[in-house]
Amino acid sequence: MAADNSDDLSPATRVVTAGRRAEWTGGIVNPPVWRASTILYDDVAHLRSAAGRDSHHKLYYGRRGTPTQWALADALTELEPGAEATFLYPSGVAAIAAALLSVLSPGDELLLVDTAYDPTRSLANGLLKRMGITTRYYDPLIGSGIAELIGPATRAILLESPGSLTFEVQDVPAITAAARARGVVTLLDNTWATPLLFPAIKYGIDLSILACTKYVVGHSDAMLGSVTATPEYWARLRDTSHQIGQVAAPDDCWLGSRGLRTMAVRLAQHGRSALAIAHWLQGRPEVADVLHPALPTCPGHEHFQRDFAGASGLFSFVLDGGTDAARVAFVDALRLFGIGYSWGGFESLALPVDPERHRSVTRSVRAGPMVRLQIGLEDPADLIADLTAGFHAWNGALRQ
Length: 400
Ligand SMILES: *Cc1c(COP(=O)(O)O)cnc(C)c1O
Prior knowledge:
alpha/beta, binds pyridoxal-5'-phosphate
């Protein structure tokens, strides 16, 4: 039985019901942790018949998963209308690597959005380059102009929308249409929106990638990644992932399944609080620009308005002039915002970021010290008070 991802239920309902199969785990509501390496067979005939059939969704050997992993993979497939199935990975970066390796071969060219997550750029500039795969970076706002970059060697286009650190929103339907016309595969890092806010495969994407570490897990306590594929690309994604030995740990998948059940309500709250704080920041004299897809000043905002069901909780802002030392004083003065990598958990985070260091063919709209905020589930009034204290520290540092 394939996962049911028909369009008839709202995503908020789907996250509650998805991936629960009585034939795997009986009536247990959240599939328990099934840990395994060896699976025992009744006799040699049973062993031989198991080896001869498709092991997908069958107990075979621990590397092929147990119902704990299958349930989460199935649940993610159910959130993506048009998808065939999902493979899980021990991190988001592992998911990106497997997705790219499943479609690229030596001699191929990858078109990579210039605002891609920096480790994705490292993979392209490192391992992929070493394998004889070339990468060409493109402007996140290129839209249908991508057609002009597609050459005879172009095999894949990787999108990330909104872009890392600066949040430019891509015209996904225009890019996937141009790619499809030329037989080029499209991959999207959909970590910011998740399928709840942007069902990627419905918008023409072939391989939809999530760092589940962020909103799916949602509690900053496990690493996990996923790739959801169309029927056309599923078999090669699965086979490549098996060949490179990928398996996500059952304990982490259990945390992912547990997190998924509340993802819709968490995302709604992250989104509301983040937008309120983004608006408040726009009114601060210390702030030159707020980079948030739901604000009309954000490059690609019209695509956000057209395609997204809402915003999540991560955005950046640019301080008006000033120095790095003043930016450090601002971040260090915050009490509720932690200083650390990752995002998508229940706690707020602040991070000084320098996007110019991670760009090849474009520059971000606004120069100046930039801070990225992950807005957690605290009361936004308390977060605003905390940021106000940060601005006092910023102003104090500038007077010195
Ligand atoms: C964090 C992140 C990843 C990588 O996920 P990990 O689980 O940390 O490996 C990929 N893409 C984006 C946009 C991210 O923010």
